[in-house]
Known about the structure:
This protein is mainly alpha-helical. It has 24 helices and two strands. A two-stranded antiparallel ribbon has the order 1-2.
Amino acid sequence: MAEWLLNRWTGAAAAIMIQWSCGASYTFSIYSPVLKSSQGYDQSTLDTVSVFKDIGANFGILSGLLYTAVTPYRSSGVECLSAKSKWASLGGPWVVLAAGAVQVFVGFMFMWAAVVGLIGTPPVWVMCFFAWLGANGQTFLNTTNVVTGLRNFPEYSGTIVGIMKGFLGLSGAILIQLYHTFCDGDPATYLLMLACLPAFICILLMFLVRIYEVRDSNYKKHLNGFSVVTVIIVAYLMFIIILQNFTSLSTWARMLTFVILMVLLALPYGIAIKAQWEESRSFAQTFSFERPPSTDSQKLIMSSSYSPSGDQSEYQELPSDAGQLQLNSDDMLTHEQEMNLLQAMCTIDFWMLFLTMISGLGSGLAMINNMSQIGESLGYSTIEINNMVSLWSMWNFLGRFGGGYVSDYIMHRKGWPRPLLMVATLGTMIFGHVIIAVGFPGNLYLGPVLVGICYGAHWSLMPTITSEIFGVRHMGTIFNTIAAASPLGSYLLSVKVVGYIYDKEADKEDNSCFGIHCFMSSFFILAAVSFIAFLAGLALYFRTRNFYKLVVLRRLKHSV
């Protein structure tokens, strides 16, 4: 009975549910008006709270350090604990999930108590701290689900990371549907829901999210099942969002759409049950382990299994010329070992990824933050602008999901390194910014779509590339350090570039601007910044293509 509850498939389904519940930071616009009015904030103060919320949602270094400390790591067939304390043996991903659940609950519960008057009006710095705390809990949940999924499904890491990141991107749209169904017009109650719902789901499911040491690569069709369900949910949400922007749904209609959404969100458990049943049946038919395997067979299994650290026994099977090339390359020797954060920061690859993050994703965030003003300046109607803003999460999801899925496809079928897809998305993002800058009629039906898909793709590609270059053991810490460049780039490009130029072009009386000139210069600058990220990604591709050919791709072929 335990095997039907504790396996990597139910763990993945549980992680998906946690992912779609923890994106409260994406719905700040829902509860920010009541936060502003109840606390007597001006717009500048509210923006300060929002900045701390964004910092919390992107500062995941603490979650990465905790995950590394409490989870066991198998290296060359030997399980070792990254933390030397005795309690580490009792740890696991559930510890990080529990810590994130506590942060989310405390942070949003404090804001709810302040809004409804349960406590006195707190100082601004206290409100900023709890906004940071509630949003930072999201990084603990996201880091756990992404890294655990990557370790449970190593051969198709791009696909599983794309699914996890995709549901995080969808979480804003899903939570807003919950708001319209149960809390419409009552953002204070919505704050209470944001405190309780993710914490309850985490406590309920956290012991299912585990690292399962399964040496089997024949599971792609079941991951594709998760993918199909995900696409169905996206299509349904797009339909509901467009419908709500054109008409007001009655109470019974909102309840009906909510019930259908919950049924769709429960489908991953059906996929998990089917996958576990087929794996159990296949295992029973193919292998009959009625006695412990011999020492020799254990060594054989370990040498043929996937090893993120690059086990030497695997490299010895390379052809002689490739092996000679590997031994003569300092980069190959560097990548053979699992790196910690300090070791990774001493490499050029780390700073190339950091540069692509601060330039590429920073420019994407700058576009997102100003999309409403761009639409107004170009004369789009309110309904058109609302549709574009609402559908942004859909394009973001398509990029997150598609980036992981397509990168796995080109690696397994074409043998192309994953950074090549990153270069392609950065190049496409340049065209997206140029389309917005030119300002031709209908440009916002194309430009933001391209930028949104490419922006989302990076959130799937970055964790996977990080794990392949620097190893899995400290991947959570290294990736979250790189991801910290995103809000930094957003601040520099949104405030110092887009906002500054808009204020110069705007009418001094009402601080508004209409016409192509309002954003043309700033988006040409964003295109230039994206081009810098493109060059950095291209350099990373040329630096790591031999490593992917000799190590990563060969490891995948060996495991399959």
